[in-house]
Amino acid sequence: MCGITGWIDWEKDLTLQRPVLEAMTGTLAFRGPDAAGIWLSPRAALGHRRLVVVDPVGGAQPMTRQRGGGTYTITYNGELYNTADLRRELEARGHIFLTRNSDTEALLFSYIEWGPQCLDRLNGIFAFAIWDESGQTLFMARDRLGVKPLFYTTRGSAFIFGSELKALLAHPDVPPEVDLQGLAEIFVMGPSRTPGQGVYRNISEVRAGQCLLHSRNGTSVKWYWKLESRPHEDSLEATTEKIYSLFHDTVDRQLVADVPVCSFLSGGLDSSAITALASEAYQRAGIGPLHTYSVDYAGNDRHFRPNAFQPNNDAPWVKRVSGHFGTAHHNIVIETGELATALETAVRANDLPGMADIDSSLYLFCREIKKDSTVALSGESADEVFGGYPWFYNEEALSGNSFPWIRMVRERVGLLNPHLANAIRAEEYVSQRYREALEEVPRLTGENHRDARIRELFYLNITRFMPTLLDRKDRMSMAVGLEVRVPFCDHRLVEYAWNIPWWMKSYGLREKGILRRALEGSLPGDVLERRKSPYPKTHNPHYLEAVRDRLQEILNDRSSPLLDLIDINALREAVRSRATSFSPAWFGQLMGAAQLFAYLIQVDTWMREYRVSIR
Hints:
Blueprint (H helix, E strand, L loop, with lengths): L1 E8 L8 H9 L8 E6 L3 E7 L12 E5 L2 E11 L2 H10 L10 H12 L9 E9 L4 E6 L8 E5 L2 E5 L2 H5 L7 E2 L1 H10 L14 E2 L4 E6 L2 E6 L12 H19 L6 E4 L4 H17 L5 E7 L2 H4 L11 H11 L2 E7 L1 H15 L5 H14 L5 E3 L4 H5 L8 H4 L10 H5 L4 H7 L1 H15 L8 H30 L4 E3 L5 H8 L3 H4 L7 H6 L6 H4 L12 H15 L12 H9 L16 H17 L3 E2 L1
C-alpha cells in the first residue's frame, strides 16, 4: 500500500509548486516509507509515497505511460489481486509492459485501454488518480467497499486530493476548519462518519464504489458499482459451496506478495477461517509456517468479565487455532500506560478523533507486527456481510428507526455546551442521516416486511458501520507501514452474500450461520461454534482511572479548546461518577465509560494539535 496526493490548478503554474507538493506528500511518509515520488506539469502535480509489496524494482510512482499520442500519469494506493489476468489481456491487445509484475502498470494500461470501464475488471482494493495530459482531465476512483481512502476539496481554481486528510491540510489554501455539520459528525455520529463527509469544512470523500472526473468544466462524481438486489435462486447446498469457493479463491489471491505475509488471529470464526486457508496454502507451497498475531492487554487475565458483547476471552481460542494449524504464533500484550498515551498518536494517524483505545491498541498491535511482516490478512467485514452483530437478532433494532450502533444520543449531547447542543440538533441530525441511508437501499420487489427490514440492516452495516472499521484498520496499520488485506471485502463475495435470504444466512439459528456451514471441515468443531466476540479491549480498571485522571487535567486547563464545546459541570459529574450511565456501550459493541473519556481526550488533542477553528 501507499499514500497518494495531488493538485490540479487551471490558473497557477504547478511546475513552480514543488515545495507544496513535497509538503503534502511528506505527510504520508509513514504510509510509504520505502520511496517518494513527485510529478509536475503546468496544470497537474502528483505525489506518491511507496510501501514496497510487489515488484520492488519496477513499481515506482508516479508512473507515466504513452499510448496513441496521449500521455497518462498515475498515482495509486492499493493492491490488485488479478494483475496477471489483466496483464495477459492487455499484452494480447498490444500493450508492452516495462515492469516485471507491477499492478500499477497493469492498472494504468487498463485505464488507457478501457477508460473508466476498466473499473469493472479490477479485483482489489484501491484509490488512484490518473492525469491525462493531452485531454487535461483527472480521473479518480475508489474500490467498491472503500477499503482504501480518498479525500478531495475544491478551492477556487484548485482541486486538491489525498489518501488522508493531513495531505489536504498541508496545502496552504486548506485551513483546518469545522462547521456545525462537522461538529455533529464528531459528537453525534462519531466515531463513525457519514459517507462522503470529510468532517473538515468543504472537504469531501470519494465514496466506496464511486469515480470522479475533474476538468476545466468542473467535477462530476458517478457510481460505477452498487449492491443490486435480485432473487437468490441457489439451493442451500449450492450456496454453501459457492461461499466456500469464493472465499478460498479470495484468500489465495490475497496471499500474493514479494514480502512476508501474516494473519491476525483472535480465535474467532473470521480470523480462524483466514488462518485455516492461508496455512493450507502455505503448506501446499512448502514455504514454512504461517505467522499469526493476537492482541491482549496487561491485567486482562485477572480483570476480564464476560458481558453481552464479549462473552469470552480470546486467549484459549487463539492457542487452540494456532496449535491446530501449526502457525508460528505471537501474542502481543499491551501495557495500560502505553495504551492511554497512544490515544494521541491515534489522532495523528486518523486526523480526527476515533475509536479511542480501540484505535490506539490497534496502532500498537500493528507496530509490533511491522517488525517482522509487511502484509497481514484480517477478518474485517464478515459480520457486516454475513450478519454477525447482535443487532441483526435484536427485536429493538429490527423495529427501530435509527442506526443500531449509535446509542445514548441524548446522554452524549447532555455533555455538550447547551448552545452547541441546540445548534447541532443531534436527534434530528441522526434521523436525517438515517433517512438518507434508507433511501439508498436497493429494494427487492415482493419481499416481506421482516426480510425487507433485515435487508435494510445489512445495507446500513455495509455502508455506514463497516467503513468505520475499515478506516480504523487502514489508518492504524498504515501509520506504521503495515498493509492489511481484508478477504471478506472481496466484491464477488459481498455481491453474492447480499442476496442470500436471511433464513440461509442465519442457518442453524446462528449468527453467520451460512458461513459456519461453508467452513465445516476447515475448522475444528468447537472453533466453528464459538460465539462471536469482537476485537478485544482492556478490562483493567487502571485504564479507566488513567483516562479519567487525564480528562480531569483537561477540565482544569483553561487553555483547553474542549472547554468551549462542553458543559463543564455535566462532564465533571460524569468524571466523578465514572460515567456509569454510559455502560456497557454508547457506540458499537466496545465503547463504554472508559472509551467516552478517551474519546473526549482525543477531541481535545485533535483541536489542539490541528489548530481546528470553528466556522
